[in-house]
Amino acid sequence: MSKDTRRGTGSAYHDCTERNCSDAAQADGATARFYQGLVHLYCGEGKGKTTAAMGMAIRALGRGKRVAVIQFSKDGTSGEVEQLRKLGAVVRAGNPDGRFLRELSGDERAALRQRQTALLEDARSLDVDMLVLDEACFAAREDVVDEELLRATVCERPNHREIVITGRNPLPWMLDAADYITEMRCIRHPYGRGIAAREGVEY
User: Fold this and answer.
1) CATH for 128
2) pLDDT digits (tens, 9 = 90+) for 105-158
3) Of 1, 16, 35, 97, which sits 20 to 30 A from 190 (CA to CA)?
4) Dihedral pair phi/psi, residue 170, rounded to 5°
5) Measuring CA to CA, which residue among 32, 65, 49 is closest to residue 159?
6) Cα gap 18→199, rounded to integer Å
7) Is 94 within 8 Å of 74 (Cβ atoms)?
8) How many domains does the chain have?
């Protein structure tokens, strides 16, 4: 990148290339840190990762913040999507036909990666206060998005931008970059009793 992304040089961007985002933010002191956008990571095997992220998006919109949501490998039909748009959020789905990765041919998988990378590139250019990267962990681990671009989106973001990442099995750099890490642990889930996902609850 041509911009100077190093902290402490007057740059308006974060940098995770030599140290994690949390350390970089702390270098400016606790008072400055309070006003900076931070990184949230919702991970784990339990339900509630996307639910928590969407709640954060609604809260931000309720305070007049500008919000964008990129849903990797999802089809954009979940119940919250249209409501978020009505509240002013930009919401983009990476996998409109909703097919599972195991159902895709090599060419189709490559096309999905290209599409999702383009969505991410577009999201980086939006003037938003919060960017939700839903299922970014999965997309990165399955190589259906450009991981370096994803990392740059998180670590070289404008200082004011809040980032929310969701998904199972986050990559090490995501853990390093996060200021908040919440792991969802499944203690009980009705799926174990044969109850399928319910409209308006799970989607």
Assistant:
1) 3.40.50.300
2) 999 999 999 999 999 999 999 999 999 999 999 999 999 999 999 999 999 999
3) 97
4) -65, 150
5) 32
6) 44
7) yes
8) 1
